[in-house]
Amino acid sequence: MKKIAILGSTGSIGKTTLDVIRESKDLYEVVALAAFSNIDELEKQASEFNPKIIAVFDEKKAKELKKRLSNIKIVLSIEGLIEVATREDVDFVMMAISGSIALQPTIEAIKANKTIGLANKEVLVAAGSLIKDLKKKHECTIIPVDSEHSAIFQCLKNEDQKSIKRLIITSSGGPFFKYRREELKNIGLKEALKHPNFAMGKKITIDSSTMMNKGLEIIEAYHLFEVKQENIDVVIHPEQIIHSMVEFIDGSILAQLSEPTMEIPIRYAISYPNRIKSNIKNFDFTKNSTLSFFEPDLEKFLCLKLAMDALKVQKSLPCFMNKANEILVKRFLEEKITWIDISIKLEKLMSLHKSENLIDLSSILEVEEEAIKKAEKI
Predict the structure, then answer these.
(1) pTM value surpassing 0.85
(2) Full set of structural domains in the chain with CATH
(3) pLDDT, tens digit, 9 for 90 and up, residues 273-286
(4) Are 210 and 303 in contact (CB under 8 A)?
């Protein structure tokens, strides 16, 4: 029986992971749960899955949960997240906490040689080189959970690295890819939070609308699959039936197709290297007979271009860009800036940043702190 820790269990990825486990309770045991502050949901999850330990990042909420669940060990803050991610009795860590607070738990889980299901974009964008080096040193397995990277991971199984010609990351295009450029100036919060295919958290939904999510995915793919940046392409595919593709040097293309649901990549990650049966219905090609593809407009979706530019520079720029974007999205969600301001302000911030080498976690956190201060003021 595989013993699992879920960091971010109250978010959409965490809840879907528990749904998958619920269908196969004979295969998995939930040993540990962790979340930022949603203790009401944690209490419900604890009553069903009976974990041995729960981590709550918010110290006040952690103390409140201790009073409610006296029979379960409750730990708090970043130290609590690390304890959950490195427990000896955990085989698989689902890293579904959003934001940079996932950095330290991920690093420590790698050092503890855990198999990690990575559903956090910021970890590889902010610290890709460091994570890659640690992964090799500790011979740790990292399985991507994003549907696009899971698709590539599945297509590359048992393939020679030298046979890869290019990776093709698909994108829904978000809600605005058909908008004219002048229409983008009038986008409101309500419109931006309507993703055409998925129900996701607010931050990632906004990133989808600006296409920053695809920019982050290019950077992730660069670090996950060790291909050159020029060999990673993005194509808009509104139906989101093909989740990504790999083209090989002989001209063959492998694609992973399915209905747009996060259940599939999550199930694949926790069952890897095997596949387990799901209750998903047979795919109906007759009802999905039209698949369309478009080239992304980099002038219209400036955030995608900025992420590609950041990867060309590398060093600290992707880390700075990622955190600055996070703060700008937060300000948009608070209706303090407009949707178009996200990309305009981000471009200005990036142009002023002096890139430097990131040698350790401390230097990464310093760059993030710089990005926070500047993005809050601009």
Answers:
(1) yes
(2) 2-144 (3.40.50.720), 150-259+282-308 (no CATH), 314-378 (1.10.1740.10)
(3) 999 999 899 999 99
(4) yes
